[in-house]
Amino acid sequence: MSAHEPFTISDVRVFTGSGRVPASAHVRVEDGHIAAVGEATVRRPGDALVDGQGMTLLPGLIDAHVHLVPGCTQLAATFGVTTVLDMFSKPEVIDPERAAVAASARGEGPVRADLRTSSIGATAPGGHPTMAYSPLPYVTGPQDTGRFVHDRVAEGATHLKLIYDDGSGTMLNIPSLDVPTIEALVASAHSHGLTVAAHVSTASGAVTVARCGVDLLAHAPFDRMSDTQVSEVAETGVAVIATLSILDGFPGPDGVMPLLSQPPLAQRLPPRWRRVLQRQATRWMPPEPPDGAAHGYNTLALHEAGVRVLAGTDVPNPGLVFGASLHRELQHLVRAGFTPTDALVAATSLPAQIFGLVDRGVIQAGARADLLLVQGDPTADITATQDLTSVWVLGRPVDGDAYPGSAVEREGIVWQKQSTAKIVKAIEDLWPDFPTPQDVAREDGELLGRLVPTTGGWQAMTTFNAPLGTVTTHDAAIALLHARGLTCLVEPWWVRTLDDSAWREAELVEVGPDRIRLRWMDRMIDQPPSGQWFDLDDIDLTNEVPTS
Ligand SMILES: [Zn+2]
Predict the structure, then answer these.
(1) How far does the centroid of ligand 1 lie from the alpha carbon of residue 103, in Å?
(2) Is the model's pLDDT at 384 over the cut of 50?
(3) Domains, the chain, ranges and CATH?
(4) Which residues lie closer than 8 Å to 515 by C-beta, 6 or more apart?
(5) Distance from the alpha carbon of residue 310 to the mean position of ligand 1, in angstroms
(6) 285 pLDDT band (50/70/90 cuts)?
């Protein structure tokens, strides 16, 4: 029994995973796999027909660097990312996600991307990323490595992640694994048949850890590599995951996160995730956001030196959204100097090869029918991948409307918020002088709102977490909260709900830190006289007349 009817995509341009087929082709799908690629004759009687004229069919995309969030495989699939390679998550998140992926593969429930995981990564006691994932089993030295790898294999890991980072790239001082321990981890992982990916952030660290025999670097270095360092890394045969998308964690000069100003991805983003990004735009930022120039330079230099470079996003870092951000990663690779074809290879056949996923990353008979159909030709213009028409995983079509507004989406967003709160708390504990959000109260103790440090100054926020005014100086933001923090509560606000893009005037009846009770001003709208509670995740709200 197949979970889908056989179908043929006709007259379509094909990107095979390594290049574009010159003439248009016909691709037949049956039982979750590609049955044939060729002339119109591949179509069988009874096949459903998908007209591919003017479009390009690609193997489903592979994001080679993610960290799992509940429901992420469903979200990734809606953007044509059909395999995610997890680079550090804990079993409490992995297990339910893996079960849901298995159900999807049996044809049950929403269609999800496939998933491979490292489970917990190997790091020194207190090492990166303790802040986000503690408590963790640590690796204290070579004597722990056999046990550590054994435990990860028992958790279902198919690759090992290890961390080599003493914080020197970010001027911190954090404990790191040493070279003998990394060598022991590599030996142990390889004896279990695991691929080894190493987190490293500096050019000199990349050389050191590549020489330990790891298979992959989880990031291209963030500081500029010398020619010698590039060839030293290349000589080892290590592959590199670019993660150029990390740059999307910083808002542009207009204060907008890059993903939100990228049509058509922005329109396709589920409204709740759009709000997550908007909130992230007002988190703490360095006064001078990085420009990513060295990161991009290194990625291209490594590629030109023959290093196999993979596309990976490091989602859910700030500013990134599962699936959507891989399209930005492709764009970043092209901006760094990759041809569109090389960028697409980095997100299809190459990661499949390196991770031993022999059944995907290509369009050929026998491969999984993990497919992405887009308008236009992404081998000519990489942004064409963003204009996606259809996605299939194991031949089942993805329903793009099933995820936005769902319970699984909410679970993912709550998880993300808790994880962010945990990291912020750890930062506050570690660096008491670090600029963090501050509550502002009146002399009698009445809370007026909060100040959030951000790029270029401070953003005043109301007690219900809506921005008041624009980014300004610390003193001006405090003055604004004193003047308007409470009076704004009795003013009209403009509100937009999850399923309606129109702004409507409303009065606030009651406010809490996470939800508000509001009453629409338009008396024609059917509503309870006392108004209605809304979760702040489910609405946009502003007290300036909205322009869009
Ligand atoms: Zn990562």
Answers:
(1) 26
(2) yes
(3) 57-412 (3.20.20.140), 434-542 (no CATH)
(4) 464, 533, 534, 535, 536
(5) 14
(6) low
